[in-house]
Amino acid sequence: MVKWDIFCNVVDNFGDIGVTWRLARQLVTEHGQTVRLWVDEPAVFAPLCPQADPEAESQWHQGVEIRHWQRDWRPAEPADVVIEAFACQLPEPYLEAMAARTNKPRWLNLEYLSAEDWVAGCHGLPSFQPNGLQKVFYFPGFADGTGGLLREAALMEHRQTFQADPQARRTFLETLGVELEEGALLISLFAYENASLAGWMGALAAGPRPVQLLVPVGRVLADLARWLGEDMLSAGSRFRRGQLVIQVLPFVSQDDYDRILWCCDLNAVRGEDSFVRAQWAARPLLWHIYKQDEDAHWDKLEAFLGLYCQALSPAAAAALTEAWRAWNRGEGMGEAWNTLSTHWPEIARHAERWCVQQAARTDLATGLVQFCTNSL
Ligand code: TRH
Question: Domains along the chain?
Answer without folding.
Answer: 3-149+361-373 (3.40.50), 155-359 (3.40.50.2000)
